[in-house]
Amino acid sequence: MKYVKWLFVVLLITSLTSFVGKDKPTGGLNIGDVAPDFSFRTTLKNHQLNLKDLKGQYVLINFWASYDAQSRMQNVSLNNAIRDSFKKVKFVSISFDEYQSVFKETVRKDQIASLVCFVDTKGETSEIFKEYSLDRGFSSYLLDENGVIIAKNISASELSSFIN
Fold first, then answer.
1. Which side of the chain, N or C, has fewer Cβ within a 10 Å radius?
2. Cβ–Cβ contacts within 10 Å for residue 123, how many?
3. What stretch of H or E contains 68?
4. What are the residue boundaries of the Thioredoxin domain, all occurrences included (predicted)?
């Protein structure tokens, strides 16, 4: 029972912090910027990804880490929305977990398709973290067919206004 109370407190705090500072500008790239190119090889299924190879498609890039509850929940929400309703959007999930084992277990628990999940074990010191000017709290970017950012920190419910 003691743990249930703490879980409720954590959920309450998390939900309240999602409303605080909603209008504050966030770090990173802005709408209208061309997304920097990157390349990854996933260890989950030995799958290669080059962002430039996805030109001609809508791409949703979501940056997250298992230790950041809000970014992790957003990752699951976006993945489920795209898998269920937005087949013409390519989802790319990039984690900044420093340990492969933590990343693999999180992807398994969250039931994210392993072909869309990549990890940069350099964490917040990685090149992609710097190129995208990310900050704690992470970000997501919706790219158009030309690799231009058309939305930032988009929610699953907001996707339809950009895609349809």
1. N
2. 15
3. none
4. 29-164
Query: Quick count: other Cβ atoms within 10 Å of Cβ 77?
Result: 14
The domain segmentation of the chain, as residue ranges, is 33-163
CATH 3.40.50.620 fits 33-163, yes or no: no
User: Is 162:154 a contact under the CB 8 Å cutoff?
Assistant: yes
Q: 104, 55, 62, 100: which is closest to 79 by C-alpha?
A: 62
Tell how strand 39-41 and strand 149-152 pair up. unpaired
- 62 and 94 in contact (C-beta within 8 Å)? yes
Residue type, 9: V
Q: Pinpoint the alpha helices (H) of the chain.
A: 2-19, 69-85, 100-110, 127-131, 159-163
Confidence (pTM): 0.78
Q: What is the pLDDT of residues 77-116, one digit of tens each?
A: 999 988 878 878 999 999 999 999 999 999 999 998 777 8
Name which of 61, 73, 75, 92 is nearest 18 in CA terms: 73
